[in-house]
Design brief:
The structure is a homodimer of 270-residue chains. By secondary structure, chain A is an alpha/beta fold. Chain A has twelve helices and seven strands. Chain A has helices at residues 2-15, 28-40, 58-63, 68-73, 80-84, 107-119, 137-141, 160-174, 182-189, 196-212, 222-235, 240-254, and strands at residues 19-23, 46-49, 75-77, 89-93, 104-105, 124-128, 145-147.
């Protein structure tokens, strides 16, 4: 199962998704961290325009541990124009308004555009500027829209890999969710919801023991007390296993097995 | 304009939002990066449980540049229990299913819960485990729900600050929740959520009695049994009144008052 998921994800990543374009990144570490952030969300197409530290980059490689597939496939371009030449849609991340007439969208909207482009067979790229300065106005100008990450206006700086992470996160969220892995199924298997009958038996067991211990007194208060206790356990959405556990707990506390069942005409009425 | 924003954000940050709880973080750098990620989204309440490198931390400070306010206010706790004692709701970030019956929610749903808790005046905390190992099962067990970040199943590891970043992002995006109507207030009056400390006392009372009755045997099974039982009650979101009711139920079942408290060095560890 897990193997299948992996293959599917790899296949999807190989053929789909926006190109992540790092424009003149200054630090190899950030390229490596961006590669990891991409792979976290199934993106594998990285393009790099004139990395300041040259290419290949040891520091990128060291930082990308486990996400080497992204660096292995990364393409390096000498100019911004070459890196964007084949794209049909371009979005530019910007931290601040550029005083230009450009639609500004949030990451979630950008992700939806990227998914739509994918579905339409169009190639879309997302631009990320240099760490210190961001994209130039000319670079932003060729984009169809600017992406701005909503954030605390008095502390809005994101590092390169964080910006890639948030865009990747939204890309992943916008798409079809992967099939639940085998482990989730296993978890469900141990979590069969208890039947109402099993829960009522639990309640009766508990209430019988509480009656014997003289807890549910005075009689006029009994209905309300029983209701309150039942409420607690009802809200927990008990599983079969948990009902058995709780019956064991009662036996453990009172130190004797349940009293043999007596017939009840109205089982729910406390 | 910007000045107004700043003041508003500072005021909001000072009084609201979930506590971000870093449990036994290994690297000061990650604490500093988490502080930045928090401030990016207006969160300022950081709690740190037993940081491996000690506290204060030079490396945290160096990495937090500009987000010093978060570190200045950070509170360090010797134990997990102290760090969570005053919380009324707890969410635990986990990378993998834990084979326990625990609701798993996405960051967006967690953010909505946090906003609702804020609006209701309840204190909510979000747990982040150590970098290498994550939270222990016992730590996850006391949480109301587990948060898992949706991601590429074959490459799902996030570093600590990235996980904090994504949670903070969703918190910010979820925006302030509308004030709860008067009826909700009335309901709250009779239904104050129990603090984590009250719930732990309940657990200890129950477990002490079960130990005395010989129920939690053999010893190698005890931790799992305790966790399963705790999970049931955690999921019920107990109120103060319900905790008192359940303690009465235990007394009613065993026929004696609680054993006088013995000092516990590690209260959660069963």
């Amino acid at each position: 199962m897990a193997g299948t998921d992996r293959t599917q994800v790899a296949a999807e990543a190989a053929t789909r998704g926006p190109a992540i374009i790092l424009v003149r990144p200054q630090l190899g570490e950030n390229i490596g961290a961006a590669a990891r952030a991409m792979l976290n969300f199934g993106l594998t197409e990285m393009r790099i325009v004139k990395p300041r530290g040259g290419w290949p980059s040891k520091s990128a490689r060291a930082m990308a541990s486990g996400a080497d597939i992204v660096l292995d496939r990364a393409r390096v371009f000498a100019t911004f124009e070459e890196a964007t030449a084949d794209l049909q849609r371009v979005l530019a991340t910007t931290a601040r308004p550029r005083g230009m007439v450009k639609r500004v969208i949030a990451p979630a909207a950008a992700a939806k555009q990227a998914r739509r482009a994918d579905a339409a067979g169009e190639k879309l790229g997302i631009l990320f500027g240099p760490e210190r300065t961001g994209l130039t106005n000319d670079e932003v100008a060729i984009a169809d829209a600017a992406i701005t990450i909503p954030s605390n206006p008095s502390y809005a700086s994101f590092n390169l890999a964080q910006a890639v992470l948030l865009i990747g996160y939204e890309w992943f969220r916008a798409g079809p969710m992967p099939k639940s892995p085998a482990s989730a199924k296993a978890e469900r298997a141990v979590a069969t919801p208890a039947t109402r009958a099993a829960i009522l038996h639990l309640f009766h067991h508990l209430e019988d023991e509480l009656d014997r211990g003289g807890f549910l007194k005075p009689p006029e208060k009994r209905p309300r007390m029983v209701r309150n206790i039942r409420n607690i356990f009802t809200r927990a959405h008990l599983t079969d296993q948990e009902v058995r556990t709780l019956r064991g707990v009662i036996v453990g506390l009172v130190g004797r097995p349940p009293i043999p069942k007596r017939p009840r005409s109205k089982v729910t009425s406390p």
